[in-house]
Amino acid sequence: TALVLSLIALFSFACSEAPKEKKLAAEPKVVMKTLDVKGMTCEGCEGSIVDYVTKMDGVVSSKASHVKESVIVKYDESVIHIDSIMDKITSSGYQVNGLKEDTPKK
Questions:
Q1: Do the beta carbons of residue 70 and residue 36 sit within 8 Å?
Q2: If you write DSSP's letter for every residue of 47-58 in order, what string do you get?
Q3: Handedness of CA 42, 43, 47, 50 (dihedral sign)
Q4: Which is higher by pLDDT, 22 or 3?
Q5: 89: which DSSP letter?
Q6: What is the DSSP letter of 27?
Q7: Which of 11, 20, 58, 86 has the fewest CB atoms found within 10 Å of its own CB?
Q8: How many CB atoms lie under 10 A from the CB of residue 3?
Q9: pLDDT tens for residues 27-56?
Q10: CB 45 within 8 A of CB 64
Q11: What CA–CA distance (Å, rounded) separates 23 from 63?
Q12: CA dihedral 60, 65, 70, 75 (to 10 degrees)
């Protein structure tokens, strides 16, 4: 009987311990930055950049302005680095001159 009780206790414990998901990603750290981007000439260019950037993992949203020569990007720093976003815009044919000083607050 002791063996049966031990087996029942072991089985009950094993069944009650459902596997738990691991949290591999760090806590989200969403920030907003304004990039100085040259080479946009129209709303089509704006749309292309927004499309390229928002498809990237970790990017929450983006807004481009050919008039202001800027791209505002909201992204999760724990998933993607701003350099990767700038590289994507550059590889799309536009010139990224770094961050603008007038980066909006959250």
A1: yes
A2: HHHHHHHHTSTT
A3: positive
A4: 3
A5: H
A6: P
A7: 20
A8: 7
A9: 789 999 999 999 999 999 999 999 999 999
A10: yes
A11: 30
A12: 0
9 pLDDT more than 60:
no
Which of 26-30, 56-60, 100-104 has maximum average pLDDT? 56-60
| Residue 82 phi, psi dihedral angles, 5° rounding | -60, -30
User: How is residue 33 annotated by DSSP?
Assistant: E
Which of 34, 45, 37, 36 has the alpha carbon at shortest distance from 75? 34
What tokens were used for 23? 């949290």
Q: Looking at the whole model, is its pTM more than 0.85?
A: no
Query: CA 30 → CA 11, 23, 78, distances in Å?
Result: 44, 18, 8
